[in-house]
């Protein structure tokens, strides 16, 4: 890599009791790059992403975003500097509508961009919320228009349901809402933790094409994914983990054919979406042979 990476994480380590879930991992992502992290269940992928995005605190290591240290920043600060993520098991506010869930992403972005003068800034915000001057109404209308645009990325999946509470949506639709909310942050780095976990084949194909579109827009994306076909097609680079360590990295085909990766997966019997066997689970060799 010639230029300064957008994200640079070095020596990342996290221990849980006697287990070192993430063991001295380095990870670099260049602007516009699509990097996937693969590995059997328990390899440490989610923990690594939790550490990078501030959901968990590391025991050792350093994270830099474009040369600025952001190690162990709290999640709201991470969001403010343009790091947006989705979660392996999906997290949306069930009682809020699709519109309001995605608006949260817009609000987070605006709040981060605004003045942070103590006392004065919050008071000004309250005053503006009470009086609702034209500037506030215009801003809100613009945000709602933007939410509609983002939601339209998902075809007719979400738009007809935009005013429904998300608890009434299908699981696949709730996962789409989560991605829409992440996009509303205008992320510099989009982190997706198994975006197709629990999805059937056609839902997976649809999600893959949406992620492919996000890639085509030139976004910088970090993906954790078990479905190897998807990883092979989308990634510029793949990093494989096992037992908290990086065991292989490089071009997708190189990593897939690396004996260390094959052994790690065979040792764990299958590339699973989650512990109870998500659809799309397939042995590595079958995934390779299907190409
Ligand atoms: N909060 C936690 N407390 C204790 N152990 C944890 C915790 N989170 C993860 N682990 C352990 O860390 C290891 C890595 O887990 P995880 O990062 O979820 O793996 P992956 O996402 O690759 O499946 C596993 O052994 C898991 O049991
Ligand atoms: Mg995980």
From TrEMBL:
One of its GO terms (molecular function) is L-isoleucine transmembrane transporter activity. It comes from the Bacteria. Keywords: ATP-binding, Nucleotide-binding, Transport. Residues 7-268 form the ABC transporter domain. Pfam families: ABC_tran, BCA_ABC_TP_C. The keyword Kinase does not apply. One of its GO terms (biological process) is D-alanine transmembrane transport. One of its GO terms (cellular component) is plasma membrane. InterPro entries: AAA+_ATPase, ABC_AA/LPS_Transport, ABC_transporter-like_ATP-bd, BCA_ABC_TP_C, P-loop_NTPase. This is ABC transporter ATP-binding protein.
């Amino acid at each position: 890599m010639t230029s300064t990476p957008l994200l640079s994480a070095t020596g990342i380590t996290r221990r849980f009791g006697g287990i070192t879930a993430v063991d001295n991992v380095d990870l670099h992502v260049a602007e516009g790059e699509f990097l996937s992290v693969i590995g059997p269940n328990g390899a440490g992928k989610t923990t690594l992403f939790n550490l990078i995005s501030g959901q968990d605190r590391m025991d050792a290591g350093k994270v830099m975003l474009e040369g600025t240290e952001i190690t162990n920043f709290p999640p709201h600060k991470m969001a403010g500097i343009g790091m947006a993520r989705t979660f392996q098991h999906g997290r949306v506010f069930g009682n809020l509508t699709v519109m309001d869930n995605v608006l949260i992403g817009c609000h987070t972005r605006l709040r981060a961009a605004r003045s942070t003068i103590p006392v004065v800034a919050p008071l000004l915000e309250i005053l503006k919320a009470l009086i609702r001057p034209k500037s506030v109404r215009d801003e809100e209308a613009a945000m709602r228009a933007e939410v509609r645009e983002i939601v339209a990325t998902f075809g007719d999946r979400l738009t007809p349901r935009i005013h429904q509470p998300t608890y009434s949506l299908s699981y696949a639709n709730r996962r789409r809402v989560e991605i829409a909310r992440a996009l509303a942050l205008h992320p510099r780095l989009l982190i997706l933790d198994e975006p197709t976990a629990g999805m059937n084949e056609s839902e997976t194909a649809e999600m893959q094409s949406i992620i492919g579109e996000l890639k085509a827009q030139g976004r910088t994306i970090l993906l954790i994914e078990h479905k190897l076909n998807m990883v092979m097609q989308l990634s510029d680079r793949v990093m494989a983990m096992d037992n908290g360590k990086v065991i292989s990295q490089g071009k997708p085909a190189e990593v897939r054919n690396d004996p260390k990766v094959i052994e790690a997966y065979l040792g764990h019997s299958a590339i699973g979406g989650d512990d109870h066997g998500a659809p799309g689970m397939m042995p590595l060799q079958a995934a390779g042979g299907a190409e």
